């Protein structure tokens, strides 16, 4: 079995990027590796959903700059899509793949593991349902503990997945579960929305042209709540995120202080789309832009202590400056691309 | 609880307890006359008990137990004078008999002979009998009834001392202690808990005792704890199913639960004991709620015939006088009551409650204040003030007074629930317009307020023109996403079925989030409730329920096509089966319906009654009627004066009006067995057996037969064959817009056929009647769009906002249509709604709103929104460009820095 998935070499480029396409590179991110697992569906409709969510996520990851060879998709039935499914999602295959990917990522890399499927809880053990023996949270923790990679994202979008937080929580790890309790056993919808959040950067709420783990989580969390509300049903799944290693998931993580959400807001599935400075002037503008972004972030953090009108005035001044700086960057980048 | 209501009850307890111990001691068999008499009494076989005890008294004329049993049996059926006379005579010949003076005191108290009762009881105190605690409790209650609170407290304190030194041992002793604690609870609310404890101990001491359970039920109900109150009443009735006090307790619980059986239940109690004053008073209260003042007065006078000094009966009589506008009559009773008891707070509390039931909230505040003036520990009075101030919009004062009530009576569930609700207002936002304030929860106020305020202003203008009055403003509209909260706002507890309530200057209703999509139209509900504000204003809050509801439904129908109740199969069936109420009794359909369905039927019927009056006698007649009620005229007088017609004649006219309007639909419904008795709202049709469908469909004038065969054909994908049956069904009963409406099925057939014109026509006609079908509105918009009529496509979507405004897709569609049509104001509205729905991608939504505002010529608003967008997403390219554009256009920001 090869680890790298064969993948159509197309990169989705959104309309927002087109204006500055010349100045933007989407370099391969050698440091990020993604393993997607689609577990047992039980019914054809679930198998299809899990497969669709998986392939969508894989597409998004590659489109956002992760090299195709860093992406592996294991599923219950490789015959469903031999082009894209690298192998059967058996426990031993998963372990071997993680070892390979973890070694490739190395200490400085990032490893993302995303699981779509059904889960179950027996006694103190929570598992993901796979062909052959199931995989428990404890077993996965043991595998990950042996890997050199220090930044790991585990998103378990299966039912009854809550205890994966308890089993896997550790410094350097961000864990997402579809449920807040193992008693939430209905087939979850979270996975579909989580995958969707990465597609076309739909969850990119801060408009930086990439989706953080926190953004994807929030996108899916809110979509889950709305889907239950619009169907007039009581919510039977409540996603959680833990990224501060305290073994307690948060239902509404925030990127502030030391709470869950801070680390997830800095984890991206794919490379940052950076503008390449090709001149001292562009370099100066990029630096200024960064400084302005920092000042805006500082101002926002102090909002509560500011008079509303003064705050808005100051914010507007900074935002105008930032907008003009960006405009200048775009102009400069565009002029450099013009032939002759 | 009053003295009079419990006197005979306790007497029976005493006797049953005493005889029980006697019987046990004698190992009584079935033939033992004492045991037999006791058994009859305990089981509620009162005639047999009277006969058995009479025989026993004849056999043993010197027996105290026999005499007490005989008196208890007589009291249980209301023969208080006979019992009192017999006990008095016995005491004449047996002056040292123990326990008889207590029984006599109770019986005399029941008859309002308080001074005689006091003398008898004090003689018993001097005799230092074993029943001294019960005697002290009764004397304490008599002191309270005379306004001697200090004297009463001294006696009650002594009872607590007796409990603490262990001398309260029997069930009767413990019940006496419980009574004392209950009254002292007014000063020290912790004693309410002690009252519960003592009642429980009394029950444990004598598990067969009915009376402590009845008293406990009343105590729970006093605290608005219906569940526990019901439990105790049911337990009491399990011991003695004909115990009039227990039957009354259950009737009160039923009334508390809003069950229509309350009146029947209290009548059953009166059948057992026609002189049970508390039951007469309760009956009068129910009749007052029905706005049947004459009958209420009759009941109150019957109660006073038994006990001329009953404060509750005097209060309910005063309420009947007051509600009929007889100020001098009311004042005369007030003087009499205060002369007997200057601290008779409950006199005012009863009046205040009666005012609330008759929508006179301002007057309820005043009576509550009066109660608190004469007795500062009347927490019921303070609560009356606070709750009703909240109803008339005096939020701060209402909260303060309610907190005061709650401090004094922290076990009152209504007080607690309402204060908890008021606390929740901190999480609500307030939005103002010229004449309205909308208060809604923070997660939906920005979405709902613009629509609610615009609709309310429109309604105010329309209703002011129609009713020739401009009610005081601002009017407060409270929208509750939790139906339980709305219910608490209205009745202090969860579980109320209504959608909205109008207190005059304050309207509270469910917000769209409170119910599943398609369950109601919150816009028509708002309009309905606001119409009450006007009819209450014209009539000075004296409009009867049937008329104000009828007018509100009629106003809904006028407001928008489709709004308001429809001609349901349930209504048609009730009409066909002769079950519609005559106009003179129409209030019963709202206040005392004989089934849950009758409420909905009565709403629609009332709307037709006012429609007929307006059609045949004119709009001014409606106003004349409202003014007639303001001037305390009866419905009969008003019909005679304003319409020149007698009630019976009007009912005939109404029948003719129904026949003329809906006779065809009624006949098309077929005989009674074809119509379901179930369902509500727009109703549904129970279809005949499938095997007979085709044969039945030959009845071309039968709606269920035509529709059911058509549905069968549609199910078999024989749409072309179904069409003529559907057309016939539709034409037979064109107002039918249930879920299987012919309009919907025809629209689907035409749509599948590619005939969008006809499909749209069906949906338009359907939606001109149906106010809650969300999906059909979206479908019509889609078809209109496909037909190329953008303006027509927008209309059903705008209507859909009042069905379910929480769907972002609805607003997105509207935004697209407004944008394509160049309706910039509509575009701003739709995009503001999308922002208010708090989308995941808030930056994009704010940017879209800013763009719309700029297009609508609102650059300052646009600037603020684009700043909000960039605050979330500073790198948002498009928003940055818009900010620069706004600045280039001269937007004043004061920011000058250049890169």
Which key features would you list for this structure?
heterodimer; A: 340 residues; alpha/beta; seven-stranded mixed β-sheet; three-stranded antiparallel β-sheet; 10 strands; disordered N terminus; B: 899 residues; mainly alpha; five-stranded mixed β-sheet; 46 helices; disordered C terminus
**By helix and strand content of chain B, what is the structural category?**
mainly alpha
Q: Which stretches of chain A of 5+ consecutive residues score pLDDT under 50?
A: 1-30
Instruction: Please estimate the helix content of chain B.
Output: 55-70%
The percent of residues in helical segments of chain A reads 25-40%
Number of helices of chain B: 46
Rg of chain A, rounded, reads: 21 Å
Mean pLDDT of chain B: 91
Question: Largest interface, counted with CB-CB under 8 A?
Answer: A-B, 40 and 33 residues
Strand order of the largest sheet of chain A: 3-2-1-4-8-9-10
Oligomerization category of the chains in this entry? heterodimer
Proportion of strand residues of chain A: 5-15%
Average pLDDT metric of chain A = 86
Strand percent estimate of chain B? under 5%
Shape of chain B: globular
User: Mind summarizing the main beta sheet of chain A?
Assistant: 7 strands, mixed
- The helix/strand series of chain A, from N terminus to C terminus, equals HEHEEHEEEEHEHEHHEHH
Secondary structure category of chain A: alpha/beta
Query: What's the number of extended β-strand segments of chain A?
Result: 10
- Ends of chain A: how far apart? 49 Å
What's the shape of chain A? globular
């Amino acid at each position: 079995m090869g680890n790298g998935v064969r993948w159509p070499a197309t990169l989705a480029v959104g309309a927002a990027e087109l204006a500055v396409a010349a100045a933007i590179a989407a370099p391969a991110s050698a440091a990020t590796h993604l393993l997607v697992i689609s577990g047992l569906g039980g019914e054809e409709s679930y198998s299809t959903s899990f497969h669709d969510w998986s392939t969508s996520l894989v597409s998004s990851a590659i489109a956002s700059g992760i090299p195709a060879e860093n992406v592996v998709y294991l599923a219950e039935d490789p015959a469903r899509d031999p082009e894209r499914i690298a192998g059967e999602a058996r426990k031993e295959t998963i372990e071997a793949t993680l070892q390979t990917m973890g070694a490739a990522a190395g200490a400085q890399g990032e490893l993302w593991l995303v699981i779509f499927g059904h889960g179950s809880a027996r006694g103190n053990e929570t598992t993901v349902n796979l062909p052959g023996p199931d995989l428990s949270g404890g077993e996965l923790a043991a595998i990950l503990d042996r890997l050199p990679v220090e930044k790991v994202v585990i998103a378990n979008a299966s039912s009854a997945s809550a205890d994966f937080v308890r089993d896997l929580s550790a410094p350097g790890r961000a864990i997402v579960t579809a449920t807040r309790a193992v008693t939430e056993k209905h087939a979850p919808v979270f996975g579909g929305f989580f995958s969707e959040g990465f597609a076309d950067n739909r969850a990119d709420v801060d408009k930086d042209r990439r989706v953080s783990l926190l953004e994807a989580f929030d996108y899916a969390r809110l979509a889950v709540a709305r889907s239950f509300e619009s169907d007039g049903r009581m919510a039977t799944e409540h996603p959680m995120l833990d990224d501060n290693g305290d073994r307690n998931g948060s239902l509404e993580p925030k990127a502030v202080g030391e709470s869950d959400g801070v680390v997830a807001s800095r984890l991206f599935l794919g490379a940052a789309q950076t503008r390449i400075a090709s001149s001292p002037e562009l370099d100066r503008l990029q630096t200024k832009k960064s400084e302005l972004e920092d000042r805006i972030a500082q101002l926002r953090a102090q909002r509560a202590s500011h008079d509303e009108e003064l705050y808005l005035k100051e914010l507007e001044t900074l935002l105008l400056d930032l907008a003009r700086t960006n405009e200048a960057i775009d102009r400069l980048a565009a002029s450099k691309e013009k032939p002759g | 609880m009053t003295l009079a209501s419990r006197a005979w009850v306790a007497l029976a307890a005493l006797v049953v307890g005493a005889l029980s111990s006697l019987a046990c001691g004698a190992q009584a068999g079935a033939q033992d006359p004492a045991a037999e008499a006791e058994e009859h009494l305990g089981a509620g076989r009162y005639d047999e008990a009277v006969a058995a005890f009479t025989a026993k008294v004849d056999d043993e004329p010197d027996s105290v137990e026999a005499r007490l049993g005989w008196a208890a049996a007589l009291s249980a059926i209301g023969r208080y004078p006979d019992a009192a006379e017999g006990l008095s005579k016995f005491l004449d010949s047996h002056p040292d008999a123990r326990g008889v003076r207590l029984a006599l005191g109770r019986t005399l108290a029941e008859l309002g002979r308080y001074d005689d009762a006091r003398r008898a009881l004090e003689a018993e105190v001097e005799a230092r009998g074993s029943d001294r605690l019960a005697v002290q409790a009764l004397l304490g209650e008599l002191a309270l009834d005379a306004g001697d609170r200090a004297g009463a407290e001294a006696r009650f304190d002594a009872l607590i001392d007796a409990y603490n030194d262990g001398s309260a041992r029997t069930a009767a002793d413990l019940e006496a202690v419980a009574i004392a604690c209950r009254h002292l609870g007014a000063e020290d609310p912790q004693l309410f808990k002690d009252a519960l404890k003592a009642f429980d101990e009394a029950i444990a001491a004598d598990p067969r005792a009915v009376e402590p359970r009845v008293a406990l039920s009343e105590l729970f109900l006093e605290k608005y704890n219906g569940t526990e109150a019901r439990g105790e009443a049911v337990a009491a009735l399990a011991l003695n199913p004909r115990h009039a006090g227990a039957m009354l307790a259950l009737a009160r619980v039923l009334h508390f639960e809003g069950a229509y059986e309350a009146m029947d239940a209290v009548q059953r109690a009166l059948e057992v004991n026609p002189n049970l004053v508390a039951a007469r008073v309760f009956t009068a209260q129910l009749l007052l709620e029905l706005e049947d003042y004459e009958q209420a007065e009759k009941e109150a006078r019957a109660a006073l015939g038994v006990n001329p000094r009953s404060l509750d009966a005097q209060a309910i009589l005063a309420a009947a006088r007051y509600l009929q506008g007889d100020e001098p009559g009311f004042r005369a009773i007030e003087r009499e009551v205060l002369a007997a008891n200057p601290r008779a707070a409950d006199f005012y509390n009863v009046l205040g409650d009666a005012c609330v039931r008759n929508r006179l909230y301002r007057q309820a505040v005043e009576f509550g204040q009066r109660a608190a003036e004469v007795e500062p520990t009347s927490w019921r009075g303070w609560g009356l003030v606070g709750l009703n101030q909240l109803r008339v919009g005096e939020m701060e004062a209402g909260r303060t007074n309610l907190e005061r009530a709650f401090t004094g009576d922290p076990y009152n569930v209504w007080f607690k629930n309402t204060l908890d609700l008021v606390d929740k207002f901190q999480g609500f936002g307030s939005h103002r317009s010229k004449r309205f304030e909308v208060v809604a929860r923070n997660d939906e106020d920005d979405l709902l307020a613009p629509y609610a305020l615009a609709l309310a202003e429109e309604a105010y203008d329309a209703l002011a023109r129609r009713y020739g009055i401009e009610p005081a403003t601002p009017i407060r509209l409270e929208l509750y996403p939790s139906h339980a909260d709305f219910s608490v706002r209205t009745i202090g507890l969860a579980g109320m079925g209504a959608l909205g309530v109008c207190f005059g200057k304050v309207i509270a209703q469910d917000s769209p989030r409170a119910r599943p999509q398609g369950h109601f139209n919150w816009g028509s509900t708002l309009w309905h409730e606001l119409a009450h504000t006007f009819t209450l204003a014209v009539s000075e809050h004296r409009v009867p329920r049937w008329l104000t509801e009828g007018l509100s439904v009629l106003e809904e129908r006028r407001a928008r096509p489709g709004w308001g109740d429809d001609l349901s199969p349930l209504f048609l069936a009730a009409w066909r089966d002769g079950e519609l109420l005559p106009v003179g009794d129409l209030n019963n359909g709202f206040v005392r319906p004989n089934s849950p369905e009758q409420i909905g039927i009565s709403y629609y019927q009332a709307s037709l009654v006012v429609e007929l009056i307006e059609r045949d006698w004119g709009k001014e007649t409606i106003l004349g009627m409202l003014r007639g009620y303001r001037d305390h005229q009866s419905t009969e007088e008003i019909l005679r004066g304003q319409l020149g017609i007698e009630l019976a004649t009007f009912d005939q006219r109404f029948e003719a009006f129904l026949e003329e309007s809906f006779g065809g639909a009624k006949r098309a419904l077929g005989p009674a067995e074809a119509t379901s008795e179930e369902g509500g709202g727009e109703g549904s049709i129970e279809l005949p057996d499938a095997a007979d469908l085709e044969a039945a469909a030959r009845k071309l004038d039968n709606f269920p037969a035509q529709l059911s065969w058509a549905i069968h054909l549609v199910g078999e994908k024989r749409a072309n064959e179904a069409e003529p049956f559907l057309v016939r069904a539709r034409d037979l009963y064109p107002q039918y817009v249930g879920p299987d409406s012919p309009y919907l099925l025809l629209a689907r057939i035409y749509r599948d056929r590619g005939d969008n014109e006809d499909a749209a026509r069906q949906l338009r006609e359907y939606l001109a009647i149906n106010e809650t079908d969300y999906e059909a509105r979206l479908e019509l918009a889609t078809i209109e769009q496909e037909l190329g009529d953008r303006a027509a496509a927008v209309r059903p979507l705008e209507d859909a906002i009042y069905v379910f405004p929480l769907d972002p897709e609805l607003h997105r569609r509207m935004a697209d249509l407004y944008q394509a049509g160049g309706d910039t104001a509509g575009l701003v509205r739709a995009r503001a709604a999308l922002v208010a729905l708090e989308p995941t991608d808030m930056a994009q939504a704010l940017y879209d709103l800013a763009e719309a505002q700029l297009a609508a010529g609102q650059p300052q608003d646009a600037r603020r929104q684009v700043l909000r967008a960039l605050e979330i997403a500073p790198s948002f390219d498009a928003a940055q460009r818009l900010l620069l554009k706004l600045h280039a256009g001269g937007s004043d920001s004061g920011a000058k820095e250049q890169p």
